[in-house]
Design goal:
Length: 181
């Protein structure tokens, strides 16, 4: 006989599914995680996931949003440090989620929702870079190119495994390029 489960709020159940997906996507990868496996990990029937999410990409977006919600408040702890230290901190945080970064780049061309999330991520990080660079006196004609150089450098560090010393040297070089070391 099936046991009765306690009633559970929809947002609580959704959060449990996202937590299970986050674990599986990071540990085993997006492509290796089937929806039925996710349901099992979350302790729900497979069709229950579709009450909360339209498809697997919607689950990925929820995971990415959860990761960002966890990481950005922690940024306040390093916000007063030199930009090279903050860049390295961001790289270190996102390196822990490297499978998610790879998945986003792989899914951008196949999923309008993932493409939109990725574009918004670039807009947010780009505005942070732009603010830093403008405050440091980088001229308006070159600031957009410098922002893209910064974003591409961070993405490159995430896509190519470097040791701590190499990551630090690259972040230092980037900051010194902007005279923000």
């Amino acid at each position: 006989m099936a046991r009765n489960k306690r009633p559970q709020a929809a947002d609580e159940k959704r959060a449990e599914i996202v937590a299970a997906a986050r674990h599986l996507f990071i540990e085993d990868g997006y492509n290796s995680t089937s929806m039925s496996r996710l349901a099992k990990e979350a302790g729900v029937a497979p069709n229950t996931i579709y009450w909360y999410f339209g498809d697997k990409d919607d689950v990925l977006i929820a995971v990415l949003t959860s990761v960002m919600a966890d990481v950005w408040p922690q940024y306040q702890d390093v916000a007063s440090q030199p930009i090279a230290a903050r860049l390295l901190w961001v790289v270190d945080q996102l390196t822990e989620m490297s499978r998610l970064v790879t998945t986003v780049h792989a899914r951008v061309e196949h999923s309008p929702a993932i493409a939109e999330w990725h574009q918004n991520f670039h807009a947010i990080t780009g505005s942070l870079f732009r603010f830093e660079l403008q405050n440091a006196g980088v001229t308006t004609p070159t600031v957009d190119a410098e922002v893209m150089i910064g974003i591409f450098t961070i993405e490159g560090l995430l896509m190519h495994n470097q040791d701590e010393g190499q990551r630090q040297a690259i972040c230092d070089a980037l900051a010194s390029r902007w005279s923000l070391a």
